[in-house]
Design brief:
single chain, alpha/beta, Aldehyde Dehydrogenase, Chain A, domain 1, Aldehyde Dehydrogenase, Chain A, domain 2, seven-stranded mixed β-sheet, six-stranded mixed β-sheet, 15 helices, 20 strands, 42% helix, 21% strand, globular, binds NADP nicotinamide-adenine-dinucleotide phosphate, binds magnesium ion
Amino acid sequence: MKAHDGMYIDGEWRPAAGTDAIAVVNPADEQVIAQVPAGTADDVDAAVRAARGALPAWAATPPAERAARITALRDVLVARKDEIAETVTAELGSPLKLSQAVHVGAPIAVAGSYAELAASYAFEEKVGNSTVHLEPVGVVGAITPWNYPLHQIVAKVAPALAAGCTVVLKPAEDTPLTAQLFAEAVHEAGVPAGVFNLVTGLGPVAGQALAGHEGVDLVSFTGSTAVGRQIGATAGAAVKRVALELGGKSANVILPSADLAKAVNVGVANVMSNSGQTCSAWTRMLVHDSQYDEAVALAAEAAAKYGERIGPVVNAKQQQRVRSYIEKGVAEGARLVAGGPEAPRDQGYFVSPTVFADVTPEMTIAQEEIFGPVLSILRYEDESDALRIANGTVYGLAGAVWAGEATEAVAFARRLDTGQVDINGGRFNPLAPFGGYKQSGVGRELGSHGLSEYLQTKSLQF
Ligand code: NAP
Ligand code: MG
C-alpha cells in the first residue's frame, strides 16, 4: 500500500515536524501495511496557518466556482473509486463489496449533493428592511473516526468547502491512508492551496492540538461521547463553535402489526453490517411479548448466516472491548442465542455475530454503545412500555419503527427522542439531516442543515 510520509499542507506534501510514525495494520490479517507520520502541535499549527491564509480568497470565491471544485472532487472520487475501496478494505477490514457500495458510494453521493447545494443555496436573504448574508464560519478543525473513514471526512469537508470555509483534517489513526487518498483527490480537483490541509496523528496529540488551536473557528468532531465531551468543553472555554456527532444505542421497534420476518432480518443486517461499527446501528431490537420467541429464533438464524461474510473489527483493542461486553451480557443474565465471546478465527480481529435474548433495559448491553456485531433483543408489554424502553438511554441518534401501516409507525416515531427514524425499512437519504438528540451530539450533518453548520449570519439594515 502506497503511503505519503508527509502532511498535506498549503497544497503540497511536506515533511512532518517530528519523526514519530503510526503503523497502519490490516485488521483481517494483523499485518502492517504502511506507516504514516504522527503529527505534532507544530504540524497542526502550520496547517491552521495555511488554512487561515487561504480563507479570505476562498470565502470570496463565488459559490458557483466553489461548486465547480466540489464537482471536480466528486469526479476524482468516482475515477479512483476502486483504489479507495481497496484502501478502506485494507485498513478498516470491511468486505470489498461493502467498501465499494457504502464506504465509497455514500461519500460520492454526499460530495455530489454539496456540489449542487453550493451552486443553488441562497447565501443571501431578505428579512424586512435587512439583507442577511450567510458567511463562512472560518477555519474548520475536522476530527474524524475510522468506522466510515471517507464518508465522515466528506460529510465535513464538502459542506465546509461549499460554505467558503477552509479546513484542517485530523483523521483517525487507524484509517489514515483513506484520508491521504482524499487529500490527493482534493489536490487533483484543483482546490486552491491551503483550503484543505491534512495532519495525520494521534487523537490526544494532533487532535487535541487542533481542537484547542486559537486559529480554529469551528471544531467538527465525530467519535466517542467521552472525547466529544472534552472537545465541547475546550471549545466552550474558547467561545468557539462546535459540532459533535457522537455515539448511539438506537432502538428498532417492531410493532405487532409489522411484517415480523422482514423487520427482524433487516434489523439483524443493520447491526451486522460494517461489523457493527456504525454509530446509528439499531443495536436494541424491541419485540412485543406475543412475538418474542419467534423474533428471537428468526434473529438467531439471520445472525448465523453472517458468520462467514462478516469482516473483522478495526483493531485488537476494539475486539477486546466488544468481547468484554459480550462477557458482561452473559454475566448480567442475558441469553446468548448466536455468537459469543470466543474469537471465531485465529488470525484477524474477528468477532462472531452475536445475538442476546432476554435482555432487560437496565443491563449494560442495553445501555452502552458496544460498536461491534452484537444485537440485544428486548421484550415489551404494550406501546407505552416500548416507548419508555426505546427512549430509556442517554443516546438519541437513530432508530427504526415497523408497523403494518406507515401511519402507525410514524405516530410512534414522532414520540421517539431521536434524530432520525427509518419507517418500515426506509432508505438512507444523503440529503436528510443526520445527528443526535440528547448525548448523541450537537448539530447536524448532510444536506442543507449540514451546510448551515458552516455558516454564520451578518445582517445589514437599510
Ligand atoms: P475516539 O477516540 O472518540 O476517536 C474519534 C477521533 O477523535 C479520532 O480521530 C481520534 O484520534 C480523535 N481523538 C481521540 N482523542 C482525542 C482528543 N483527546 N482530542 C482530540 N481528538 C481526539 O473514538 P475511538 O477510540 O476510535 O473509538 C472508541 C469508541 O467510540 C467506539 O468503541 C465507539 O463506541 C465510539 N465511536 C463512535 C463513532 C461514531 O461515529 N459516533 C465512531 C467511532 C467510534 P485517534 O484515532 O488517534 O484515537
Ligand atoms: Mg481513540
